[in-house]
Design a protein that fits this description.
By secondary structure, the chain is α+β, with helices and mostly antiparallel strands. 32% of the residues lie in helices and 26% in strands. The structure holds zinc ion.
Length: 231
């Protein structure tokens, strides 16, 4: 059983990672094909393996890790982002997936990029920081996030005619594993849709969890015309 402690607004939340079905599946299959410490070769527990999921070299302890120069690895800004990355790496093992990328559109950071055989699919996770406070007020930082979201979409989808998927949630997704997985499956479905369609114009797909419903919104950026479609 893997649990993780999250501290939000002074409250301690215990999130059981096993509630994510895809992680349970990964854990159930883990013992027959475990990961080993890159230094001493000792098998890693599932907990240690998952904690170091995004690292190429994984270690059983600090001592083993200290034998290697620290590799510069971009850190995830939240457990939510790490879960998205883990889900996509496991469901799309054929593609290289990069995260926290700063060389695509500097100085902006793009959360993830799925390098498919046809084109890159950029993925952004826009959580509660991208929404107004509960009282309806926009803070300076929310305004900044919203402006940046717009700038990134225009640059990637309209100017560069590339593909972008954005997952939006106005309330914490990490503490709602079932809804989170439903959103992740819609993101996966959207990636597969873009690959299959293989269109040569810019596209943006928004998967939105409103706190109540999940919906998907598609935009085409073709011949300077923006077409919209809701499903
Ligand atoms: Zn070791």
């Amino acid at each position: 059983m893997v649990s993780t402690l999250l501290i939000r607004n002074g409250c301690v939340l215990i999130v059981n990672l096993n509630k994510f079905k895809f992680i349970t599946k990964l854990e159930n299959n883990y013992d027959s094909n475990p990961s080993y410490c890159s230094h001493c070769g000792k098998p890693l527990t599932f907990k240690k393996f998952y904690k170091q999921f995004e690292f190429e070299k994984k270690f059983c302890c600090k001592k083993c890790a200290s034998q290697y120069p620290e590799v510069e690895v971009n850190k995830f800004s939240s457990e939510t982002e790490k879960t998205i990355y883990a889900f996509l790496s496991l469901t799309l093992p054929q593609y290289n997936i990069r995260h926290n990328i700063t060389d695509i559109f500097p100085p902006y950071e793009i959360d993830m990029c799925i390098e498919t055989e046809h084109f890159p699919v950029f993925l952004e996770f826009n959580g509660t920081l991208h929404y107004p406070r509960k009282n309806g007020y926009l803070t300076k930082s929310t305004v900044k996030h919203q402006i940046n979201d717009k700038i990134k979409k225009i640059e990637i989808c309209k100017n560069r005619q590339q593909k972008m998927i954005r997952l939006w949630s106005s309330s914490g997704l990490y503490s709602k594993p079932e809804i989170f997985e439903e959103c992740l499956n819609l993101v996966l479905d959207s990636i597969n849709y873009l690959i299959k369609a293989n269109n040569d114009y810019g596209q943006c797909i928004d998967v939105v969890y409103t706190g109540k419903d999940i919906y998907r919104y598609k935009e085409k950026f073709k011949d300077d015309i923006i077409e919209e479609d809701l499903d």
